[in-house]
Write a structure and sequence with these properties.
It contains five helices and six strands. The chain is globular, with a radius of gyration of 15 Å. Helix 1 (57-75) runs parallel beside helix 2, helix 3 (120-128) crosses helix 5 (154-170) and helix 4 packs across helix 5. By secondary structure, it is α/β, with parallel strands linked by helices.
């Protein structure tokens, strides 16, 4: 079930960002928008790319493309915020994650979104004020900043953190 803000917008609005946490099994997403100096949570969820039995990678990538296209069509973001590539534990994981990121980037560009990539350090610093924060600290700050339930999973939290980072960087605070 998607957790949505009660008043989703139906037009493409500057300051509306789709944050993505790409994963080979679960890809988290969150739609946020900037209203003045406030970041508003629109919706968030994840796309599960595996099932039992797990379909081949090309079919999972197609599933991700279709899901992201639907999300973009429904919520009309202008930007995509995603974490920059980092190393993986093994070559197979790195290659699979590269395929997933490729689908995410392609879907965004195909849909006319501007793509912005941020390092893990930049995202953590934007959300917690400390670039070496752990995942639990990031998850807690996302919850506090957006006023959303604590039940968000890590993939969703990371996607929302990327969106927060982008909105604070690209749409800075206005003079009060």
């Amino acid at each position: 079930m998607i957790y949505r803000h009660p008043e989703p917008m139906i037009y493409r609005q500057p300051g509306r960002t789709l944050g993505i946490d790409p994963g080979s099994q679960v890809t988290g997403f969150g739609v946020l928008e900037k209203e003045g100096n406030r970041i508003k949570h629109v919706c968030s969820n994840f796309v599960r790319l595996t099932s039992s039995p797990s379909p081949p990678l090309p079919l999972r990538l197609k599933q991700l493309h279709q899901a992201l296209s639907q999300i973009i069509q429904e919520f009309r973001p202008t930007d995509l915020a995603v974490e920059k590539v980092f190393f993986a534990k093994n070559v197979h994981s790195a290659l699979t994650l590269g395929h997933v990121r490729g689908v995410v980037l392609f879907t965004a560009v195909e849909s006319g979104l501007e793509v912005f990539e941020y390092s893990p350090l930049e995202i953590k610093k934007a959300v917690t004020g400390y670039g070496r924060a752990d995942k639990k600290q990031v998850q807690e700050m996302v919850k506090l900043l957006l006023g959303i339930p604590a039940s968000q999973n890590q993939d969703i939290s990371d996607a929302l953190a990327a969106g927060i980072c982008h909105l604070n960087w690209f749409y800075p605070l206005k003079d009060l």
